[in-house]
Amino acid sequence: MQSPAKRRPRLGHATPSALENLPPVALARVIARAGPRGAASLACASKTLRAAASSEERWRRFCADDIGIDAPVDPEGRVLPSFKATYVSWLRSFRMYPLPLVKRVKMFWTMLKSWLSEFFPGALETFAEGLSDTDIRIAEYELGFQLPMPTKLLYRFCNGQLWRNDLQSCGIIGGYEFYYHEMINVHLLPLKHAVERAKLLRSDNGAIRRSNYIVVADTSFEEKTFLLDCLSGQLYVVTKNFKSNGEMMPCVPNSLIRLHTDNNHMPQDGLLLWLEEHLRKLQSGLIKVQISNFRRDARHISLYPETPPTCSIAVTHGIKVRASAVFVPEDSSVYGDPCKYVYYYFIRVSLPDACNVDGKCYSSCQFQSCSLTIRTGNCLS
């Protein structure tokens, strides 16, 4: 029996799909809704869809929306031929992290560097280049535990501040001057130093010997220290009783800390939350860069508030008085001390214009003494 003849395929062009027949504007909206992965899949369907899905403008928007970048460069700053190649490069480099968190951390460092570039370039010069995931895994191996995901990303973009002779005043966390020639100024530690300090803590302080803490920021002489609990994600600052009993104070509310993606909420630990709030204070002008009162060649980020209501300003007879206070955790305690909370205050007296008092004109003034009223709730002391 003769086998039936095989049917030959018809020659000609395939019928365009309904998607390909859409007007350009409508097709662009569909691709935008599909997202980067959907656009990449559509580009494999036909030449028409490939041309539409490979639009440089569309991938520029993907890069801006998902990563927060506006130039075709890879994570190391190298120029790439297209925004599509840029997106792929960033996706591969940060494949271990959710892109919304990558964008959030990147935007934090971008805005902080922009602020420092304008107001405190000396501190910006101390920034170290970011680490690779391999560098971070090596540090975690030495520590014996993993870092929270947001902290890993912070170190991916910037490995803290490098040591310089003037780092004592260039710390990005800032500080305050008090008494005579005393300055507290906190800088962000490179991960290597954070690991070394964590090992010292385990050997020197029995109260936290078994805990998953690293030192993320401190002063040159360790007067003020910030610790990150990598198990809970909470950021702590030490008190004056730290060396005796490991006493610390939390820096952010526990309710804000999330170490895992939950209901479309990205992870956020205490270090990231605290740094973002610190940046908001800098951007709003609440805290500013000041010239040292004791070293006229030194500038530092002063934590004394500069705007009301945390800073009080009054003018009497043309004399302007500005007063503010800052909480000092390293001299405070949580338990067992009648003087629990310590504040440093700063008073600045100025004479914007010549003043007239009792018919006499004065062109200068001098601060001699003050009387303080301390309020605790509704009580006076």
From TrEMBL:
It comes from the Eukaryota. Signal peptide: none annotated. InterPro entries: ApaG_sf, F-box-like_dom_sf, Knr4/Smi1-like_sf. This is F-box domain-containing protein. It comes from Panicum virgatum (Blackwell switchgrass). The lineage of its organism: Eukaryota, Viridiplantae, Streptophyta, Embryophyta, Tracheophyta.
